[in-house]
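Priority: low. Protein: SDR family oxidoreductase. Input follows.
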Amino acid sequence: MDFGIRGKTALVLASSGGLGLGIARALAAEGARVFLTGRTSEKLERAVAAIEADGGEAAWLAADLADPATPGKLEAAVRGALGPVDILVNNTGGPPPGRMSDADLEVIATQFRAMVLSVMAMTAIVVPAMRKTGWGRIITVGSSGVEQPIPKLGISNALRASLAGWSKSMATDLAADGITVNMLLPGRIHTDRVDQIDGGAAERSGKSLEEVREASRATIPAGRYGSVEEFSAVAAFLASAPASYVTGSMVRCDGGLIRST
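Result:
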């Protein structure tokens, strides 16, 4: 299948590693020009070099999503390097784990600015150019916790759920402009972040890391963690031209983890 995004410009947030980098690689493999961003210059430089070594076109800028000035700086940098944004992948890091009842309000506010307001601001900045061309793709990476709250990830459950309502509202507003807006919900995709969560669970419970992973795999009908490549392939499809009638959706990539229909 021709995804029809060769020559399109894609901005992928939080893409120096993990799911963000996986998505950037998948889009580059389909011929999109990708712009990476994150807080660590060295990681971004290596990631861009790897994409270019595979024949892709990429650029990068180190930036902190918690800084209110970042969305404007990113849009200007992308436009200058690769052109106006056609595909926006809203991806952010996760907040500290813990029970919602124990969460500090200042931590929640800080994470809200980094995980929610930054996404809303970035999207608002790139939408006018998408409207002008009559084509755009906005994908927000969420979490299975949006549909089935994850124990000990209270802040993440709350903030990513707020993005679900925002995403659906934006999809309704932008559908007639040729812009699709979807959320992509990962389950247990094997990344450094998942390793950190599993490691924390092992430390708290006194179990070994493998025991924690075995118990986690037992909750997944597929019986295993997903790969970054599997997840990124779904993101690339949602960014494609053939996905033009898919909007306002929350798409799961979780091996059957969520039990609801």
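The first helix runs from residue 18 to 29. Residues 9-188+229-253 form a domain with the Rossmann fold fold (CATH 3.40.50.720).
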